[in-house]
Amino acid sequence: MLTIIDHPLVQHKLTLLRRSKTTTGEFRRLAREISLLLGYEVLRDLPLEPITITTPLEDMQAVQVQGKKLCFISILRAGEGILDGMLDLVPAARVGHVGLYRDPATHEPVEYYFKVPDALEERLTIVLDPMLATGHSAIAAVTRLKQAGAKSIKFVCLIASPEGVAAFQAAHPEIPIFAAGLDRQLDDHAYIRPGLGDAGDRFFGTK
Ligand code: URA
Q1: What are phi and psi of 142, to 5 degrees?
Q2: pLDDT in tens, 16-48
Q3: Is 75 in the pocket of ligand 1 (CB under 6 A)?
Q4: Strands 192-193 and 48-54
Q5: What gap in Å lies between CA 84 and CA 31, rounded to an integer?
Q6: What pLDDT score does 67 carry?
Q7: Three-state DSSP string of 121-187
Q8: Bigger pLDDT: 158 or 101?
Q9: What residues have CB less than 8 Å from 53, skipping those under 6 apart?
Q10: Of the candidates 76, 83, 105, 66, which has an alpha carbon nearest to the alpha carbon of residue 32?
Q11: CA of 198 to the centre of ligand 1 (A)
């Protein structure tokens, strides 16, 4: 249930993204490009249905994506950094947001924002968070989305840690994870090593 997208362009762009000398503008552009390429792989099994269309020359049997518009869920705030590339690929997709912070006492994720499209149970739901580190936010977000009705869910990140993957798979074993890279470990501050630092800070130019 873990797929590392090993396309050479994804891997090349991920290398550029990781480098500390990559500027905020370049980081944003690269994250957008990588997420578009990830999206292409993540959505390769979208079901199609037949449709009759008219070309300038004749009618033909063509195909279109079946069912309700799919839905991207951005886990705030870093999820925003890989949303635009996905929307480049699927401009008509619906978008939801989940905001979670870590309770300083319990270290458990606490929800502060939740807004998702209707009829979630009829939509493919793609959850976006660039760093699968401890897995706590991803697990809590997916649990909440299931409560809201989501039935068909995929999780997409740029970089995963082995610890995050194990925790996520223990909590949601049926949900596929797609990543551009699987790194060595989490450090004592829950950063992924070697990683790319704080994804939110690098997307938004904050510290
Ligand atoms: N979140 C980040 O932005 N980076 C990490 O390495 C871990 C969590």
Answers
A1: -70, -40
A2: 999 999 999 999 999 999 999 999 999 999 999
A3: no
A4: unpaired
A5: 9
A6: 84
A7: HHCEEEEECCEECCCHHHHHHHHHHHHCCCCEEEEECCEECHHHHHHHHHHCCCCCEEECEECCEEC
A8: 158
A9: 59, 60, 62
A10: 83
A11: 5
Give helix 24-42 / helix 8-18 axis angle, nearest 10°: 150
pTM above 0.85, yes or no: yes
Distance CA 70, CA 108 (A): 29
| Ligand 1 centre distance from Cα of residue 132 (Å) | 8
> Is omega for the bond preceding 104 within 30 degrees of 0, making it cis?
no
Q: How far is the CA of 99 from the centre of ligand 1 (A)?
A: 16
Cβ partners under 8 Å of residue 105, min gap 6:
none
User: Mind listing the pLDDT tens digit for each residue in 81-121?
Assistant: 999 999 999 999 999 999 998 887 877 889 999 999 999 99
What are the structure tokens assigned to 60, written together? 């033909």
Asked if pLDDT for residue 186 goes beyond 90, the answer is yes
Is 192 near ligand 1, meaning CB less than 6 Å away?
Answer: yes
Q: Is 106 known to be catalytic?
A: yes
The whole-angstrom separation of Cα 9 and Cα 39 is: 13
- Note if the bond before 77 is cis, omega within 30 degrees: yes
Q: Is 201 a catalytic residue?
A: yes
> Is residue 132 in contact with ligand 1, taking CB distance under 6 Å?
no
Instruction: Kindly list the structural domains of the chain, giving each domain's residue range(s) and its CATH number in brackets, ordered by start.
Output: 2-204 (3.40.50.2020)
